């Protein structure tokens, strides 16, 4: 979703203008919807605690965070009272009822490890999803930026335990039918206490009615998933397992650079290394500098490999992953 995570982040000033009927496709990313004749409404979750309305949101100065498969993402500061992430779903064609049902399910989830959906807006040509903003950024940035050295083992463990809890909560929702569909390190944000929070929930679900889209190899998707409409809870667990392996190795699944193995994804590379009993070679050099965590890293490696089992039925449920990761945290505290 967030293409900006795969390149150096650039912030550009933009304005979410509601008044013009002409759609501006300029690089600044101005949003000027064409469907002014069809009245939409913004729906807030959480009652009257929000002090801004639709006009405030659309008139606010915004920073473009990126453009992805579903549209554009903005950081919006509304009258200095709230900072939110607004996703404008420009290329999503979905009926009102389907959109609203999904948003209501996601908006009903209130958990510290799931990014809060604060509001949504629907009209014929424009849809908005308003989420919590996390100033510390996401796991991808932390792992692959110049600040990587500051991400120690304790922090990494807190991040993935939090993210696993969030995924387990998601999988319990909607009578245990809800699927995220796009788990990756750039969709795991970090709160002030270094806990991981799953974001972008609901966006994949909205696109299930769209024409079949073949998934490009990203390193995160389970091997059985070749159609974006056919993600499952087991494929979510596979993707989360890849995140665990990414955290342990410090290598990006999208561009792993695995010792010249051009066609080998991160999970396959780690399987091959472990088979040869070279386990120590897979770990991030920054983690290897820390003393006394080797046993915990091996435990997490085993959990990650269980999650990326080739057969979906061989993978653990998200709740089981939480328990296994918490056991590492207990071991670490001893």
What does this molecule look like?
The protein is of the alpha+beta class. The protein folds into two domains: 3-132, 2-Layer Sandwich (Phosphorylase Kinase, domain 1); 142-333, Transferase(Phosphotransferase) domain 1 (Transferase(Phosphotransferase), domain 1, Orthogonal Bundle). It has ten helices and nine strands. The chain has a seven-stranded antiparallel beta sheet with strand order 1-3-4-5-7-6-2. Strands 8-9 form a two-stranded antiparallel sheet. Helix 4 (153-176) runs antiparallel to helix 6 (233-249) and helix 4 (153-176) packs antiparallel against helix 10. Residues 1-15 and 17-38 have low confidence and may be disordered.
Topology:
Blueprint: E1 12-15, E2 41-44, H1 54-59, E3 61-67, E4 72-78, E5 82-88, H2 96-107, E6 117-122, E7 127-132, H3 139-144, H4 153-176, E8 188-190, E9 196-198, H5 203-206, H6 233-249, H7 266-275, H8 285-288, H9 294-307, H10 318-333
Helix pairs in contact: 4-6, 4-10, 6-9, 9-10
Entry summary:
By secondary structure, the chain is α+β, with helices and mostly antiparallel strands. The chain has helices at residues 54-59, 96-107, 139-144, 153-176, 203-206, 233-249, 266-275, 285-288, 294-307, 318-333, and strands at 12-15, 41-44, 61-67, 72-78, 82-88, 117-122, 127-132, 188-190, 196-198.
Q: Strand content of the residues, in percent? A: 5-15%
- Biggest beta sheet summary: 7 strands, antiparallel
Low-confidence runs of at least 5 consecutive residues: 1-15, 17-38
The end-to-end distance, rounded to whole angstroms, is 39 Å
Report helical residue fraction: 25-40%
CATH architecture of the largest domain: Orthogonal Bundle
- The CATH superfamily name of the largest domain is Transferase(Phosphotransferase) domain 1
Number of helices: 10
Order of helices and strands: EEHEEEHEEHHEEHHHHHH
Which shape, going by the Cα principal axes? globular
Return Rg in Å. Answer: 20 Å
Named CATH topology of the largest domain: Transferase(Phosphotransferase), domain 1
- Strand pairing plus helix content: what structural class? alpha+beta
């Amino acid at each position: 979703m967030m293409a900006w995570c795969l390149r150096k982040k650039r912030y550009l000033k933009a304005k979410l203008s509601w008044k013009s009927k002409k759609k501006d496709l300029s690089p600044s990313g101005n949003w000027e919807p064409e469907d002014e004749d069809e009245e939409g409404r913004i729906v807030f979750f959480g009652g009257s605690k929000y002090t801004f309305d639709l006009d405030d949101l659309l008139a606010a100065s915004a920073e473009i965070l990126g453009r992805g498969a579903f549209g554009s993402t903005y950081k919006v500061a509304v009258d200095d009272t709230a900072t939110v992430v607004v996703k404008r779903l420009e290329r999503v064609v979905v009926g009102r009822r389907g959109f609203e049902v999904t948003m209501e399910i996601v908006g009903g989830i209130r958990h510290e490890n799931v990014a809060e959906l604060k509001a949504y807006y629907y009209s014929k040509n424009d849809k908005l999803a308003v989420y919590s903003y996390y100033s510390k950024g996401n796991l991808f940035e932390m792992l692959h930026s110049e600040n990587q050295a500051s991400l120690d083992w304790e922090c990494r463990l807190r991040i993935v335990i939090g993210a696993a809890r969030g995924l387990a909560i998601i999988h319990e929702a909607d009578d245990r039918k809800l699927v995220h569909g796009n788990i990756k390190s750039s969709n795991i944000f970090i709160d002030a206490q270094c806990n991981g929070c799953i974001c972008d929930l609901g966006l994949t679900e909205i696109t299930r009615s769209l024409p079949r889209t073949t998934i490009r190899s990203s390193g995160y998707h389970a091997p059985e998933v070749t159609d974006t409409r056919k993600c499952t809870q087991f494929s979510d667990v596979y993707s989360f397992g890849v995140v665990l392996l990414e955290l342990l190795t410090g290598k990006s699944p999208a561009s792993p650079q695995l010792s010249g193995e051009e066609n080998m994804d991160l999970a396959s590379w780690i399987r091959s290394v472990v088979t040869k009993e070279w386990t120590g070679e897979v770990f991030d050099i920054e983690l290897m500098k820390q003393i006394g965590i080797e046993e915990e890293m091996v435990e997490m490696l085993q959990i990650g490999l269980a999650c990326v089992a080739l057969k979906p039925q061989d993978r653990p449920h998200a709740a089981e992953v939480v328990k296994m990761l918490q056991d590492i945290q207990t071991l670490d505290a001893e």
